[in-house]
Design brief:
The chain is mainly α. The chain has seven helices and two strands, in the order ααβααααβα. The radius of gyration is 21 Å and the shape is flat.
């Protein structure tokens, strides 16, 4: 996908994507950027939430959505849009390659793997403030932390 996008940019602009990105470097902002990351501290909690989220998607018509895309006839499993987590597995189910139960299991596993990659990427973020997710408490903890940051800024 990235190579395809880079070739499209080159074809349209006559310049490599790297040159265009270098030309459009933003100026340093006059304000301080704050990066907040909210993550469950316990992987079991994350896995449980992923499973519940997928079940909710299913109950809200996810398979109907994918079925409508499947029946259009102009899409295929090799297309980037159909390779997204959940869609890939639902497509295989509609094609009769796997059962609905297997589709659900694979979609949840793929989502867990994607979440793990996201967390790995986020760990590389510099100057990020991490908050462990706790239902009903996270917003208060973030608000308290931000207020402390504002007080510290006022002292400088």
């Amino acid at each position: 996908q990235r190579i395809q996008r880079a070739l499209e940019v080159y074809e349209l602009s006559g310049q490599p994507l790297s040159v265009l990105c270098d030309q459009n470097l933003p100026e340093k902002p006059s304000y301080r950027l704050i990066k907040l990351i909210i993550s469950p501290g316990d992987r079991v909690v994350l896995h449980d939430r992923i499973g519940k989220r997928f079940q909710k998607m299913m109950s809200k018509g996810f398979m109907d959505e994918v079925r409508a895309l499947y029946q259009r006839g102009d899409l295929g499993p090799e297309m980037p849009s159909m390779r997204a987590v959940g869609y890939r597995q639902a497509w295989s189910c509609l094609a009769g390659e796997i059962s609905r139960q297997t589709m659900t299991e694979r979609a949840v596993i793929a989502t867990r793997q994607y979440a793990k990659r996201q967390l790995t990427w986020l760990r590389g973020e510099e100057n990020a403030q991490w908050f462990e997710y706790h239902a009903g408490k996270t917003c208060d903890r973030i608000t308290d932390w931000l207020q402390q940051q504002l007080r510290n800024d006022e002292m400088c």
